[in-house]
Amino acid sequence: MTTQQIHDIGRRRAWVIWLVALAVYVLAVFHRSSLGVAGIIASERFDISATSLATFTVLQLVVYAGMQVPVGVLLDRYGSRAMLLVGLVLMTAGQLGFAFSSSFAGAVAARAVVGAGDAMVFVSVIRLVTVWFLVRQAPMVTQVTGLAGQLGAIAAAGPLSYLLHALGWTRAFALTSSVGIVLLVGVLAFVKDSPYRTDDVVAIKLRALAQSVRTVWGNPGTRLGMWSHFVSQFSATVFALLWGYPFLVQGLGWSSGAASTLLMAMTAWTVVSGLVTARLVARLPYYRSWIVVGIVVAMVVPWTAVLLWPGAAPTWLVVVMAFATASGGPAAMVGFDLARSFTPPHETGRANGLVNVGGFTASLLTMALIGVVLDLSASGGMESYTLGDFKLALSVQYAFWALGIVQTLRYRRRGLAHLARMHPGSVEQMRAGQPFVHPGIGTEGV
């Protein structure tokens, strides 16, 4: 293999490439979050129950999570630019189809296409961050990527809610789908895969695919990243994408405007908590897993208070719970930083794909179970669900929090032992507050 650096790392070109890719991620989060405020309208448009409403988002996330490993392999083979282009085409087509769908089946199929496009975006952006930025820059840029992406959630919570009421379902979703065409031009014009020219191509034959994924999965660092992502992300995703808005409006009796405002405020809090998390992770690399667990515990406590409160919890407590939940987004980004410490550069696509499976698997299972519990509690549709029904259904989160914390601490122990064995001195380096980045030599499946 011959490699020649042809562009500066961490300089102006890197920032331009990142900003264009980031815009694609913002759009992906917007499309993903669009049902958060459209859920009640969708239930009326298609005349569906809570379980059927959850099917929209669950199927979208099933497709998203199921594609992470193949997308990771394709990303290592074809690069971020190609994957961003394909992702944009799929998201634009899916959202346009969703705009004109008049049947439940057609709308579900359209959301599945959106999920397929969405699956290609985030890991592609993270790979660009890995290759275009300096080691000292990467943790902060990774966090800012996740935080800035939440601008899409703000747009879904506020402007989309306005467009739906002002323009109606079809015109609102058709208008938002057109943004993808503009970003296609931007990616074609500005995004480059790497600052290096290399003769090496990561070509993975089909018969070697299973072994390749097994090797990356066998690394305890990959699984540590995945379980960290699993335990911290799902609650914020479930709340913002589907069940938070109905819980606030139908369960707690909030107005639609107040509920939308809280969802936007959660995103603003995500930015604040993300900057704090990034600083902690950079200064305390040895304690990254404990930082994730600490944030999850801080999330569980106010959720418990809200669910156990007699009747509707006071507004201040709901706001505290929502902000604590929003902190899970930045905590989930730590999973990618953890995996980076264990993974050779030529395997980052597959490792990040496997990490990304964690939170979205937990999210889709939680969303589906909440819908099932609601329908078992009251079978009369959205209007029949009481506050008690919502409290019972939202309690399913505890099973996933418990599993995630146990597995994160389990693989923290295994991961540290792995690093001590493969890279003597690395654990002591992290204890001293210095980041350890994989040197990129060899394959380290266990």
From TrEMBL:
Any one GO molecular-function label of the UniProt entry: transmembrane transporter activity
Keyword Metal-binding listed: no
InterPro entries the record matches: MFS (IPR011701), MFS_dom (IPR020846), MFS_Efflux_Transporters (IPR050189), MFS_trans_sf (IPR036259)
Localization per record: Cell membrane
Listed Gene3D superfamilies: MFS general substrate transporter like domains
Residues passing through the membrane, by range: 15-41, 53-75, 82-100, 112-135, 147-166, 172-191, 224-245, 257-278, 290-309, 315-339, 351-372, 392-411
Keyword Zinc: no
Cellular component GO terms held in the UniProt record: plasma membrane
Principal location class: membrane
Keyword annotations from UniProtKB, A to Z: Cell membrane, Membrane, Transmembrane, Transmembrane helix
Domain Major facilitator superfamily (MFS) profile: 17-416
Topology of this chain in the membrane: Multi-pass membrane protein
Name of the protein in question: MFS family permease
Organism per entry: Nocardioides cavernae
